[in-house]
Design goal:
rod-shaped; mainly beta; Immunoglobulin-like
C-alpha cells in the first residue's frame, strides 16, 4: 500500500504519483497491532487532528465581541420610559446654572443634542446645566435631548435677551460730613449695567451683584444726588446725601426774616413798628438746621 504524505490519501502499490497534488507516493509500512497482554488483539486508537491555536483564538474573540454587542444592544434598548425634571428652564440674560434630574427604568442614557450656548456635565442620574451670558440682545431658545433606548426626553431652555428689572438692596443712603462707604447688592436679570453718579460720589463694581458707594469728607454745604443704574432701558435710582453746612443759612444758623425782609420793622419815626417775627433783629433762627448751621 502506498500513500501521499501531503494529501494523506492511500493508493494501491501500482500507483506512483498522487492524483490530487502530483507528489511522489511513498510506501506505507504495515502496522503491527499492539499485543494484548491477555493474549488478544487490542483495538487501534485513532488520533484526532487538533485545530490550530490561532483559529481557536479567533473563534473565542468573535464570540466575545458578538456577546458584547448583544449585551450593549440590550442595555441600550431596555428602557420603557424616560423623564427629565424640570423639563423647562428659564434663564436670565446674565445666564446661570442648575441641575436636571433624569428618571428612567433603563441602564444607559446619553445626550443627543445640546445648544452651543449651553454647557452640560453628566453625573449618574442628573445633568449639570450652565447657560452662558446672552450678548445677542435678543431672546433665544433651545433644548437638551436625552435618549435611552427608543425613549427620548427634552429640556426646553429659554433665555432673555435684555434685562427686565434692576433692584438695589438700598434706595436711600446718607453719609455724615466725614464720609464713608456702603455696599449695595444689585438684584437683576441683566448684568451689563451702566452707572451714573453725582460728582461727590464714587462707585466701584465688586461683581455683577454688588457695588460699593463712597464719599469723602465734606467741608462744604449739605449735598445730595442720585446714583442711577441703567441697562436695556431699565433704570433704578439710589438717593445719596451727605451732611455739611446748612444750605439755607450757609452755616450762619440764621436767615432773613420773612416778615420784615430783614428790616426789623415797618414805618418811620413815630409810626415805626418793630417786627414781631424777628423782634426787630431782621434775622431769625434757621428752621432747616434749627440754628446750628450744620445739616446732618
Amino acid at each position: 500500500m502506498k500513500y501521499c504524505k501531503h494529501c494523506a490519501k492511500d493508493y494501491p502499490d501500482s500507483m506512483n504519483f498522487c492524483t490530487e497534488c502530483g507528489a511522489a507516493l511513498e510506501r506505507k509500512e504495515a502496522e503491527v497491532p499492539p499485543v494484548n497482554v491477555a493474549g488478544g488483539n487490542a483495538p487501534v486508537r485513532r488520533v484526532k487532528k487538533r485545530r490550530p491555536v490561532w483559529k481557536v483564538v479567533l473563534i473565542v474573540l468573535a464570540a466575545l465581541v458578538g456577546g458584547f454587542f448583544i449585551l450593549l444592544n440590550y442595555l441600550n434598548n431596555v428602557a420603557t420610559y424616560l423623564r427629565m425634571e424640570p423639563d423647562h428652564l428659564i434663564a436670565p440674560k446674565v445666564g446661570g446654572s442648575t441641575t436636571v434630574d433624569i428618571d428612567y427604568d433603563g441602564y444607559i442614557w446619553h445626550i443627543n443634542h445640546v445648544p452651543d450656548w449651553v454647557d452640560v456635565v453628566e453625573d449618574e442620574d442628573k445633568i449639570g446645566v450652565e447657560v452662558r451670558k446672552n450678548t445677542t440682545g435678543v431672546p433665544r431658545e433651545g433644548s437638551i435631548t436625552v435618549q435611552s433606548g427608543k425613549c427620548l426626553a427634552q429640556v426646553i431652555i429659554t433665555q432673555a435677551g435684555v434685562a427686565s428689572y434692576i433692584s438695589p438692596s438700598q434706595r436711600v443712603i446718607h453719609f455724615d460730613k466725614g464720609g464713608g462707604s456702603r455696599d449695595v447688592s444689585i438684584d437683576t436679570d441683566g448684568g451689563d449695567y451702566q452707572i451714573d453718579r453725582p460728582d461727590f460720589v464714587s462707585v466701584s463694581e465688586d461683581d455683577d451683584s454688588e457695588i460699593s458707594i463712597r464719599t469723602g469728607r465734606n467741608t462744604g454745604e449739605y449735598r445730595s444726588g442720585y446714583v442711577r443704574i441703567k441697562e436695556d432701558g431699565v433704570t433704578a435710582s439710589i438717593y445719596v446725601s451727605q451732611g455739611g453746612k446748612c444750605n439755607d443759612c450757609h452755616g450762619s444758623g440764621t436767615q432773613l426774616c420773612p416778615q420784615c425782609m430783614g428790616q426789623g420793622g415797618w414805618g418811620y419815626g413815630m409810626f415805626y413798628t418793630k417786627c414781631w417775627g424777628c423782634d426787630g433783629n431782621g434775622r431769625i433762627k434757621c428752621g432747616t438746621c434749627n440754628g446750628s448751621g450744620e445739616r446732618e
